[in-house]
Amino acid sequence: MMTPMRYVLLVLGLIISIHYILSLTHEEYGKATSISNLAGQWTGPKSNPPYKTPVPEEYYKPDEHIYQPDRKANATFVMLVRNSDLPGIMSSMKQVEDRFNRKFQYPYVFLNDEAFTQNFKDNIQALTTAQVEFGIIPSDHWHQPSSIDEERASKSREDMVRNNVIYGGSVPYRNMCRFNSGFFYRHELVQKYRYYWRVEPDVSFFCDVDYDPFLVMQDQNKVYGFTISLYEYQATIETLWGHVKSFINANPDLVSPENAMEFLSDDGGESYNLCHFWSNFEIGDLDFWRGEAYSKFFDYLDEQGGFYYERWGDAPVHSIGAALFAKKDQIHFFNDIGYRHNPYQHCPQGGLHQKGRCWCDPTHNFDYEWYSCLNKYDKMFS
Questions:
Q1: Residues forming the active site
Q2: pLDDT of residue 34
Q3: Cα–Cα distance between 240 and 319 in angstroms, integer?
Q4: Does a cis peptide bond (omega within 30 degrees of 0) precede residue 343?
Q5: DSSP 8-class letter at 372
Q6: Distance between CA atoms of 278 and 235, rounded to whole angstroms?
Q7: Would you say residue 67 lies in a domain?
Q8: What is the helix, strand, coil percentage profile of the chain, to 5?
Q9: Residue range of the domain that includes 106
């Protein structure tokens, strides 16, 4: 016979379970299909894209203890954060250390538009034995340029707020997008590096990374690496593609003949399909951004004022730049790096999930959901 106390505990357990199920349903809002449902619909490309070719075993260093690898790339982690982001960036950094960097010992560069507090620095440095540097962003790299017509920009922000455009009323968000699009790689602390891995607060890294992604970029001549791709909000980039076409027409020699236009456009470049790589995770070649093609491209876009008159994001700007000025096979999908930035996640499947000892649920994977652009990336290699 059930005692009153056991009955109360049973009821409480049921209530907690129901609440948990409901919270999962809410979190998964917007996901149109599951991986199991997609299995019969998606046949994949006719040939293996580069990311489906396994990373050679020579890159892997599966070891339980800290060691110094026999060779390293000239690379760093770059984290753009504020002092108030300390809990979130500590969570992200701890996962980076546990899953990868405690073994490989790459340095960190933290950037802020104001000075970091000593408390921030102390807590960050306690998480790693790798080198950590803290830098302040130059004012002209961060704040709205004086060339921007503030009356016009203000009206645009008001219109976006009225239309419920995400971050539509935020000037700091626009400053961040412009900085990430065209200035972070110019910072004095970043100048000495060739490759970077961008890390944001409050993200998850699900899998062990027992090889060096920076060496993959270096050895295989990759310039841009991603884990998630999706569609941009049309309302934030109304005139962006028109300016892109104007730049291409004026500078056809800068466009790579083996580019990834197929990822960006479904009609040969006449219009933009809104696909971009989600830049809150990116591993990239800093020299590519510093090169002639992208430098001219960013300067041209910056002159148009769209970072403030609209709300151009660094994700579409980076994606368009990489797709146009690099070869398509220089853009790499890090299929084995499990990653989440709410509300989307990439969770490696099958053998990759097991090899990486991933803790994500394989059925919660954004790769081929209706709002993902990974299928367009795949088709480039069909």
A1: 282
A2: 35
A3: 13
A4: yes
A5: B
A6: 17
A7: no
A8: 45, 10, 40
A9: 36-49+73-379
Residues (pLDDT < 70) of the chain are: 1-47, 61-69
Query: Are 206 and 356 spatial neighbours (Cβ–Cβ below 8 Å)?
Result: yes
Based on C-alpha coordinates, what's the Rg of the chain? 22
* pLDDT number for residue 359: 97
Length of the chain as a residue count: 382
**Considering the domain boundaries, does residue 29 fall inside one?**
no
Global pTM? 0.83
DSSP labels for 18-46? HHHHHHHHHHTTT----HHHHTTT----S
What single-letter amino acid sits at 227? T
140's tokens? 């002209």
> What's CA 28's distance to the chain center, in Å?
20
| CATH number for position 221 | 3.90.550.10
Instruction: Give 305's Cβ-side CA count (13 Å radius).
Output: 12
Q: Give the residue from 85, 54, 139, 138 showing the smallest Cα distance to 336.
A: 54
Q: What is the distance between the alpha carbons of residues 275 and 242, in angstroms, rounded to a whole number? A: 16
Write out the two tokens for 179. Answer: 């900085």
Number of domains in the chain: 1
68 domain residue, yes or no = no
User: What is the separation, in whole angstroms, between the first and last Cα of the chain?
Assistant: 65
Burial class (CB in 10 A: 0-12, 13-18, 19+), 37: exposed
Pick from 145, 138, 90: nearest CA to 114: 138
